[in-house]
Structures are given as C-alpha cells and as structure tokens.
C-alpha cells in the first residue's frame, strides 16, 4: 500500500511498525478495555518527521491516533478494529530543548515522560509541580492533551495551569509554532488552552514550555485519622488559614480503601489508629537550613489544635523521609490493592467541596442498595473535591456478576454527583469510555460549541476519532 | 426604527439610551484614542435581558460592542462612527450570586467592579487575588474578556487562572450555562478558556465563578534601591528560594520613572536613597498572631543578605500599613505622573525574565537615538517579565512633535522585544490599537487558527468587530 511506502520513505523503515507482535503494545489501552488493529504504528523522531507523516496521512485521508505513554484510564488512544487507522507515537521526541532557571521554565518534547521531566527540572534545582501515579510512563504530550491532575493540583493547578507555550502539528500538517516562554502574553486567543485537554482531537502536541517552581528543600507530612468527611474539610480549612502556600497535597482515603491496602500489599502498616477516614497532608517549602523544622513545627501546631477540636482522632507526623514515603506508599498502592481485591469499578468524580460529605453518604447508600456486600473504597484528591469513588466486588462473590452491574452502579453514583453539580470525569478525561455521558451531561449548547471548534480545526475529523464526542446516531437517539 | 422599538419593549425605555448626552460616556475609550457613535447604548439588567437583546440584534443583523467599565488601554470597546452598532453595557448585572468559604469560590455577575468583588470576598474572610490600577471601574466581565493581569499574577496568575466557570451569551442569543464551580473537570474542551481573553469577540460573559484564596492576615513590604536590572533578578531569585509562596508582588520602577512621580505627585517621598532602579517587594501570608512578625523577619533576613551581596544599595521595610500604602502609592501614581509630565507613549511588553537587562538597555538606546532628550520611564511587573516601557517627551519640547514620532519609537522598541522572543501586549490585549501588529507578530498559522475559531463561534462577525483581527485588506497588503 502506497501510504505505508511513503511513510517508510519519510521516516525510515524502522519507524513504521506493522508486525502485530510489535504493534500490540500500542493497540490496546492500559486497562484492556479497548483493543484495536492499526494500519501501522509510526514513531517519528522529530517535529519535522511528524509534519511529514501527518501530511501524508492527510493526503491519503487516513485517521491518526496520537499516542504518548498509553496510560489513559478511559481508552483515550486506541485505534479502530478495522486496520484503517495510524497510531502516531510521540515516544521518540525526547529532547529537553531548553531550561531556564531565571525564568523558571523548561521546553520539553512530547515524548519525555513526566518522571524524566521532573528529574530534568530537579537537576537544575527546580520543581515541576505535577505528579500522577503513572508518571513513569505517561509522556508530556499526553499529560497535556488530557490536562492531567494528580496530587499537587491543590497548590499548583492542573497541567493546564503549567503551560506557557506549545508546538502543535495540525490535522493538515501545518505547524503552530507557539513555544513562547512568556508569563504574560495577551495577543489574541489563548490557543494553547484550546489544545490542552482536547485529547488529541484538535492537533498533535510535539513540544511544550512548562512553568516551574523553585526547588523544594523542606517537607513535612502527616497521616491523620478522622471521624468524618466534615472534619476533613474542617482540617483543610484550618491548614489553609495557617499556611496555604505550603499545603501541597491533601489526600483522602476511606477506612475501607486503606483496609484493602493493608490486606493486599506487603510491607505496609497503618501509622495511626483505625478510623473511618484518613487524610495524608503534605506540606513543602523552599528555604535555608531551619525551614524544614519550622514547617514541621507549624504542621504539628495545626494538628494539635485540630486534635483538641475533635477534628482528628489520631495523627502521625513523618519524622524522616523514609516515614514520609511510607505514608505515600499507602496512598499510592490504592489502585493496585483494589485490583488484587477482585473486580472493581472506577468513578473519577468531582463536586464542590462543601458537597463532599453528602456525596460520600448518598453514593455509598445508593450502591449498597444495588449490591449488598459491595465494598465502597473511595479515595482521592479531597482538596480539589475530586474523589475516585471506587467500588470493589463483595468478598467471595463472582467478579463477572459484579461487573455486569457496572452500568447501574455508575449511574447511581452519577445521579448523586449530578444532583450535587459535579463532574463525571474530574481528571481522567472522556476518552472512548465516557462519550455516552457527554450527551446527557454536556449536551445542547456546550457540546455544540465543542463540535464547532472540532470542525474548525479538524474539518475532516481525522484526529483521534471516537473520543470525547458521542456518535452522531447516539446523539440523535438521545436528543 | 424597529430594532430600537423592539429593544425598548424587551428591556424597558430607560435601558435603551440614544441621547448623545447619555451615550457619550460609552462611545469613547478611556484614553480618548477612539470615539464612535452608537445606534444605541443598551443596559440590560439580567442574563435573560441580555439574551433578548442579543437575539433581537442578531435578527436585525446589527453588531454588538460588549462593554464593562470601559477602562481598556487599547480601544477595546468602542462603537463604529457610522451609528450602526449597539453598545451593550453589562453594568447593571451586579449580583453576587453565591460565595462559598468551604470551596473558596464566588459566583459574580459581569457588571460587578473588580474592587466590589474583592470587597465581597474580603467580607467573608477570603482574598480575590487580582488587582489592577483600574479596579474601581473595571468590571468582572471585562476583566475576564481581556484576561487582566496586574500586581499579583506572580503568585496567583492572570484572570484566566482564577476562572472555574462562565455563563456566556453567544452571538445568536443562545446561552452557554458553564457556571460550574469545580476545581477539576475534564469533560471535553475547556470552553471557559476560549472565552477568557477573547475581548468580547466570541461571546458575552454575563457571570463567572472565580477561585478565591484564604484571607491574608500578615503582610511585609520593602522598597529597594538597586544598581542594575541584573541585580533585581538576583533579588527575585533570592526571595523565591526563601519563601516563594509568600511573594505576592515584585514591582519594578526605573529611576527615571520614580523621578517623575516625585516631581509631579504631591505627598510622595522616596523612602530610600536615589538609585537607577527600584523594586517594591510585597509578601503576604495567612496565619495566626505572630505570622506577620515572622514574615517581616524573613524578609529582613533576605534583604540583609542581598545588601551584603551587593544586590541592593538601600532598602526600607514598611513598619506599618500606612508606610506600606505609601510605598504602593509611589508605584501606583506612575501613570498619572507620566500624564502630567507631558506627552507619553506606552509599550506594554513582556520578555523571558533573563532577557530583561538586555531589553532595558537596547530599547532605551534605540529610543534615545531617535529622540535625543527623550525620558525613558519603564516600570511594571518585573516578576512576570512584563514591563510598561513608557516614553515621555523631552522636557520643554512640543508634545505633538513627540507624538508624531510614536510609530518609529514603538517600532524601535518592538524590534528589540521581538529579537528577545517577547510580546507586544503582555496584559492590555490587542483591542483596536494593536491589530496592525497581529499580522506581523502572530500572522500565518496562528492568526488563521484564531480566525477559524472566530468563524466557528460568531460566523456573521457581529461581536466586537475591528478588535484583535487586522482588517482583511491590511492583511493582504502585508501578506
């Protein structure tokens, strides 16, 4: 076929994979929810090669699935099953183009993993303040295309808030050279914000300028046991009133989800007495010697006052980095523990903070009514109102029977979230998994505006088809 | 004429102004650079009235100039001279719809002034961290439509970074109900980011959800004298390394511009010895009793070390709020002092921070070569790389003769900025004043992408014509 020949001529033979043994890793999503069959997987090594490949695909009318680390939780980068689409992997665009300690910015290519980018910043004494569980595999291009969130958004915002400039290859192969590293620039529409979070449907990000922070030299962390979600909100307010700038993370874990970690992960111990709710507080600062002790003292003060006020029943302050990492291990092993505990259903939801107590109660009650014995294991970024309201099969029951209940369970949770003016996808995006919800939650004017932007930037609909937008016939049926 | 009758029927007679005595205040910009003649000025009092008015204008094919406090520096909201356009003032949409101390958010209507919104937040113990010189008149709708910047962007970002949700009336009268107050929501394109900074060309913002911060209870400020811009950057790095979270403002003033303030504004005294460069440092924190002293002590420490390192030649620490306000008065009177000093030319530019020393030297030299005796009076938000590189006529020379040199002077500055990869409008936007620069600075793919988005959302081009985009024939001529 001539497109493949042209691609080989443009990129080199080794950059065009068609052998199923080689393309398999690019053809299914991380959760194995979707599987496809690409015409080819191409691996350009420069922006210029991306341009040549996209131009050839445009001429041939072939759709492109841009792919980074392929760590989507929602089937965000899977080719169709009919062998007609090209997977374009950015993994070989791995250069650090520039890093500027005066300006606190770095210019990295799309294929650099988030962890590698963090390390590049740290080497120069700076902090790239974005941290997600999959950072070892997730690549900057995908992180931006999905507006990733994670653990430090409370203090520094989502991926969107860290982007100053982008280089983007458009659907027709033109390049938008928007790699500006300016902290302020009001010269027309904020195009970078249009591409960030667009899930590869409007253009292919090949490089980005990211805003950094001064390096962190002091940390203080605590693991807290709490009687209720209301008290967790009271503790958050107390911490913010004391030192909002130092509060980098406020992570929630339900008693049920911590129990799963204790049961299924080796080498983990609960640092506080048992409780229905836990919070991991992480504070950080930059400063000379003595800053760490001052930070620790302030945190201890706040926790002491919270204990007295009954907001906490117990708290452990990390005495060293090893203890701090042990606290974080409990938080980070949640997904793995749930996997080992049996079949599970994930809900990545957000609500206004004040609605969190009601969310937890009402959603749990609705799920228990549907599946007696269901294990309710919510955890997540409470400081952002973002909870992974995950559900694990009853002990001893069949996994398949539980998963057969996925739809009613997700709908039951969704109904509560919707009543509380929340979102059905706080940080994971829409992908293919949640397109069906776009019609009912974001339909009408909002979805129409999105379609108009899609048509303006990718009129032929050749960039990552099937994500974000519900199929037209589904829309008609719903409308 | 029937449109006016229809508008009167929909909004009430008093909401439709046609008497030139009444419409004059809405028909010129604040700087008196542009003046127009509206068909009418309409003042709806609710989103519903905005919808009815926009629908009627759409049916009649009449263009709309959305207007807030009318404080644009670039002619951002002026009707045409031929009496065919409607000015739609949002000033009567003044409600605080909601404020949430748990979530740290407020929902305000477009016509609330920024100062009033700040006061509403402060009343509930919170901080709306956006501050600009015109905040007493500028309204939230305009502040968002122009992505306003100001004094605290170093710590909290531009207007764009504070917006969680929007309510927008579209060109055809449809409403996008996007008033979500969620800190995380990845359900499709970030439409709010498309409207923020679009200068009223894509839709009319009628209300917004803004992100707030805990109230500030402690402040420490210093006025510093420095030998060079390089040393100002060194001081900034030193402050960031010590306590980045507390650094709310880092404002630069050249010796020449402070001299103008001392000469033309009453009741102002220089708090430090004379120097070629000055910086106003503002630190803030939330915390209990003792926090203010701790903040003051930390700032004093840093300044002591900077003095020892030769980064400063002198510094004054504000001993009380009155002194702090006196420091800020020097900074805030810059525009007024320059006005009184004679004719002046404004350049609102930004460059990467490391390029600031070269910018200052090269731009000053270029201007002096063109106009001997010219007074170079730069000041601004150095921490963001954003300098108002303002130029004042030579003493005793004619103002008109000086202004006749505007174009070559602005071009000379622009040439330096461009060589340093900067922006010709850091925070004031494009408006009508700078459309000519869009072609040469942002032309090609970037401007084409903006045009595509404009066509997708306002196909008939009836929302704020003539701003941002260069006239087609100018484009052809340049292209």
From TrEMBL, chains A, B:
> Which Gene Ontology BP terms does the record give?
respiratory electron transport chain
Where does the secretion signal sit in this chain? Answer: none
Tell me which PROSITE patterns the record gives.
FAD_PCMH (PS51387)
* InterPro entries in the cross-refs: FAD-bd_oxidored_4_C, FAD-bd_PCMH, FAD-bd_PCMH-like_sf, FAD-bd_PCMH_sub1, FAD-bd_PCMH_sub2, FAD-linked_Oxase-like_C, FAD-oxidored/transferase_4, Oxid_FAD_bind_N
- From what superkingdom does this record's organism come? Bacteria
UniProt entry tagged with the keyword Flavoprotein:
yes
**Domain named FAD-binding PCMH-type: residues:** 34-215
Instruction: Give the record's keywords alphabetically.
Output: FAD, Flavoprotein
Q: Do the record's keywords include Ribonucleoprotein?
A: no
Q: Which Pfam families does the UniProt entry name for this protein?
A: FAD-oxidase_C, FAD_binding_4
| Entry's Gene Ontology molecular function annotations | catalytic activity; FAD binding
PANTHER family reported for this sequence: BLL6224 PROTEIN, D-2-HYDROXYGLUTARATE DEHYDROGENASE, MITOCHONDRIAL
Stated family: Belongs to the FAD-binding oxidoreductase/transferase type 4 family.
- In Swiss-Prot or TrEMBL terms, this protein is called FAD-binding oxidoreductase
Recorded source organism is Acidisoma silvae
